DNA sequence: TCAATTACGAAATGATATTGACATAACCGA
DNA sequence: TCGGTTATGTCAATATCATTTCGTAATTGA
């Protein structure tokens, strides 16, 4: 039963003081119930114990219990309209699964874009580009592909970038080469993989500075990480989405390029020349892509 | 200034503990900030005074002051649902590079989500899941990670999935095993890689059915492909984005799961058991993630 | 009008929260 | 490697809160 219903129908014969409180709580439901019991009492013009007695009468074990239910309702009310907001344009429901998924993921991205903390990107950018040692990349079963992608970009930006790939027994051998001067970038999303966590912990013990990409539930790696980049992953799908994490990766790369333009340009040009010379990319009618693409299209 | 803005931009260089709190508060904003400071501290894994110090740093006289503003915002939001739209404020222009990028990518995604053609997903789903032979995955320098990710998912859905990884000279040896019964899924975005194109063409000649993920300028592979999935890649960045392509990949997987539930569930459960038995994932307080995750958080 | 019952507030209490002071640990520059 | 600095947890003091107890006022039924 909803809290609101209990307020309206839960009391067969409310006393005058009770009526005052109920009226106040319903006035701008559910916000008025969010403060302390004392505040409610004062605003309703009754004494503190009367409020306590009321919630007890309504069947709650305590005022805290009552407030917890109120919060749960508020959460439901706050979450669903937010996520439905943009979906309403389309008579959702019998939409195609694929399009529904992309819409859902897009909404998640929009939600995420308002919660980005730029400062952490600055810090990670600084750490990764200034690290005197090497930069190692590690990921879980799926997230390792994010690691690989970031490794690909970083390799264009600086030397000494190493993608550890799949975490195997041999991977642990790499630990002996890792130390204070190095940085380890870990991707770990639920369900957190024990080998990734163990490797990260051992690296942290060796003084390696850790950067962690994870979900809001925080991988255990977070404990030893210097910087933690959190991204939402939930969508209307049995699987979690990697779109927000990928957005973080790409945003970080964009930031690095913006900050270290001169240093990177030289390096990228050399790469391009090497690739060109070996005919790696199609020469013909291709547009200038990647790092050198023109911006006017 | 809104509380949320202070959280995202109020700290030029948040300390690790501060970052933890900020992320928690943003995670399900603004509800997570409604409890007591002690609750927040416990959930963020920091001490009570650290929370108090943070709100002080953000310019609030006290924690109560901070919470009062939070409540005021919540009230405004609840009273006029239209205000929720206003939350999508227009960036001032001198926005941080990282956030500007994510906003840009989000807009690209929103644009893309209106242009999805569901039919092609159905066709690809059918082709991939019904193919009597094997399913091969191939990608370019960066896009091969998308291929790897899709390979990871597909491997859970059916047998005979092979990620070809980096296109090397040895990769071409695999051609001899490929034939009419097989499917090759190619990821090729500008700049199109000649080895990927050549491999795909030769596969097509052998009767392998091709599925191509590419950008609007169409990789040369498109000529011999049975199905082509196009996704926009341009953003406000020197690099192209892989967000829309990744969204396609994830949407395809979601579709497959939705269509082949029974068949897949058995397979996934077996995988899970094997992983469980070998302690691959953290056993403790981890939520049930991925395919078996619960949806009530 | 009276007595019994219920409602209610004042004060007290035990618990909890906030915040300041202090100490330790981590970090940074030399 | 070593001071100086900052960050952060521990402890303690104070304030506040929820809740119990008790006494009084209001209400009800005869």
From TrEMBL, chains A, B:
<dbReference type="GO" id="GO:0003700">
    <property type="term" value="F:DNA-binding transcription factor activity"/>
</dbReference>
<dbReference type="InterPro" id="IPR047640">
    <property type="entry name" value="RpiR-like"/>
</dbReference>
<dbReference type="GO" id="GO:0097367">
    <property type="term" value="F:carbohydrate derivative binding"/>
</dbReference>
<dbReference type="Pfam" id="PF01418">
    <property type="entry name" value="HTH_6"/>
</dbReference>
<protein>
    <submittedName>
        <fullName>DNA-binding MurR/RpiR family transcriptional regulator</fullName>
    </submittedName>
</protein>
<dbReference type="InterPro" id="IPR009057">
    <property type="entry name" value="Homeodomain-like_sf"/>
</dbReference>
<keyword id="KW-0804">Transcription</keyword>
<dbReference type="InterPro" id="IPR046348">
    <property type="entry name" value="SIS_dom_sf"/>
</dbReference>
<keyword id="KW-0805">Transcription regulation</keyword>
<dbReference type="InterPro" id="IPR035472">
    <property type="entry name" value="RpiR-like_SIS"/>
</dbReference>
<dbReference type="GO" id="GO:1901135">
    <property type="term" value="P:carbohydrate derivative metabolic process"/>
</dbReference>
<dbReference type="InterPro" id="IPR001347">
    <property type="entry name" value="SIS_dom"/>
</dbReference>
<dbReference type="InterPro" id="IPR036388">
    <property type="entry name" value="WH-like_DNA-bd_sf"/>
</dbReference>
<feature type="domain" description="HTH rpiR-type">
    <location>
        <begin position="1"/>
        <end position="77"/>
    </location>
</feature>
<dbReference type="GO" id="GO:0003677">
    <property type="term" value="F:DNA binding"/>
</dbReference>
<keyword id="KW-0238">DNA-binding</keyword>
<dbReference type="InterPro" id="IPR000281">
    <property type="entry name" value="HTH_RpiR"/>
</dbReference>
<dbReference type="Pfam" id="PF01380">
    <property type="entry name" value="SIS"/>
</dbReference>
């Amino acid at each position: 039963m909803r809290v609101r219903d209990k307020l309206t129908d839960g009391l067969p014969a409310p006393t005058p003081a009770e009526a005052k409180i109920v009226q106040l709580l319903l006035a701008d439901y559910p916000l008025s119930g969010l403060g302390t019991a004392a505040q409610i009492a004062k605003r309703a013009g009754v004494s503190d114990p009367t409020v306590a007695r009321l919630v007890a009468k309504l069947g709650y074990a305590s005022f805290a219990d009552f407030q917890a239910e109120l919060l749960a309702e508020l959460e439901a009310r706050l979450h669903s309209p937010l996520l439905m907001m943009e979906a309403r344009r389309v008579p959702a429901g019998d939409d195609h699964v694929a399009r529904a998924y992309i819409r859902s993921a897009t909404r998640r991205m929009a939600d995420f874009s308002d919660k980005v903390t730029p400062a952490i990107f600055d810090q990670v950018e600084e750490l990764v580009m200034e690290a005197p040692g090497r930069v190692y990349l590690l990921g879980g079963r799926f997230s390792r592909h994010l690691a690989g992608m970031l490794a690909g970009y970083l390799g264009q930006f600086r030397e000494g970038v190493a993608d550890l790939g799949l975490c195997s027994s041999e991977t642990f051998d790499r630990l002996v080469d890792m130390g204070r001067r190095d940085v380890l970038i870990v991707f770990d999303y639920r369900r957190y993989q024990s080998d990734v966590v163990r490797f990260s912990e051992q690296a942290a013990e060796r003084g390696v500075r850790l950067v962690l990409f994870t979900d809001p539930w925080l991988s255990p790696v977070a404990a030893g990480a210097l910087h933690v980049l959190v991204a939402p992953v939930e969508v209307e799908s049995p699987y979690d989405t990697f779109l927000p994490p990928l957005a973080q990766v790409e945003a970080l790369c964009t930031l690095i390029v913006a900050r270290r333009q001169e240093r990177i340009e030289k390096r990228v040009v050399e790469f391009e020349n090497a690739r060109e010379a070996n005919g790696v990319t199609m020469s013909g009618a291709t547009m200038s892509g990647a790092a050198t693409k023109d911006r006017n299209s």
